[in-house]
Amino acid sequence: MEQKKEPVNIAADGQYDTRGFSALMCCVTVMDTATRLIVNTVCLDKNEEKCPSTNLERRGVEKALRQLIDKGLQIKTLTTDRSKSVIAMMASKFPAITHMYDPWHLIKGVAAILRKECKNARAKSFKDWCQALLNQLWYSVTSAKGNGSLCQQYAVSSLLHSMGIHVWEGGKFSKVLHEGQARALCVDTEEAFPNDPLELPGKFVHEIEFKEYLKCGHEHPFTETATKSILCPLSKSYNVLQKAYTNDNFLNDLMHLSPELATSSLEGFHGLVSNVYRSKNHYYNLAGFTNRTKLAVLHYNHNVFAEINGTRKVIGTLQLKAKHRGGDTVTKKRKTPPDFTWKKHLISEVVNAYEIQLDVLLKEGIFDSDYHEEMEEETEEIVDFDINIDERIDHLFDSDVENEDS
Ligand SMILES: [Zn+2]
Question: Which domain of life does the UniProt lineage start with (predicted)?
Answer without folding.
Answer: Eukaryota
